[in-house]
Amino acid sequence: MMCKTGDALYALKKLLKDPNNVLQSWDPTLVNPCTWYHVTCNNYNSVTRVELGNAGLSGQLVSQLGQLSNLQYMEMYGNNITGIIPNAIGNLTNLVSLDLYLNRLHGRIPTALGNLQKLRYLYDRSHIIHTFFLIILHFGSFRLLVSLLFFLLCVQE
Q1: CA angle 97-16-76, nearest 5°?
Q2: In terms of Cα–Cα distance, which of 87, 12, 81 is closest to 47?
Q3: Which domains does the chain show, CATH number per domain?
């Protein structure tokens, strides 16, 4: 039986289209996801990093990602991820970097991200300009945010 972090990542795999088979090692029959490619764990077999940048993936993010309580880095740039950023990402209190640029996300950045006191980097170029101004209004809740980079003026095809 797989742990809940493995279940969360497998839920993501099931919702993503993976034409390059980068997720083929994500086997739900394993005890934990620490042997999966593109997943890094700490010494306690807890997922700390998911690196899926430029992987050719398409689909949506799943709310189950909010169960990855020790996740520090989520790198999913350069794919064709659509939909919204789930509010549950705000549960990732150890998250340092959330890299989602060059995707096709829409909607507002969840205010729940204000719970992420360790967040230093939020890269997202797919949200519309009014979201940038809304997040600036909430900037005070990002107490330790060092770099908030939005490339909102780039045109997405």
Answers
A1: 20
A2: 12
A3: 4-150 (3.80.10.10)
Sign, CA torsion 108/122/42/30: positive
Tokens of 101: 């640029």
List the structure tokens of 5: 């972090």
d(CA 128, CA 131): 6
DSSP letter assigned to residue 55: S
How many whole angstroms from its chain centre is CA 98? 6
End-to-end CA distance of the chain: 42
Angle at Cα 148 formed by Cα 54 and Cα 142, nearest 5°?
Answer: 125
User: Do residues 3 and 31 make contact, with C-beta atoms less than 8 angstroms apart?
Assistant: yes
Token couple for 20: 């390059």
Tell me the whole-structure pTM to 2 decimals. 0.80
* Residues 98-110: tens digit of each pLDDT: 998 889 888 777 8
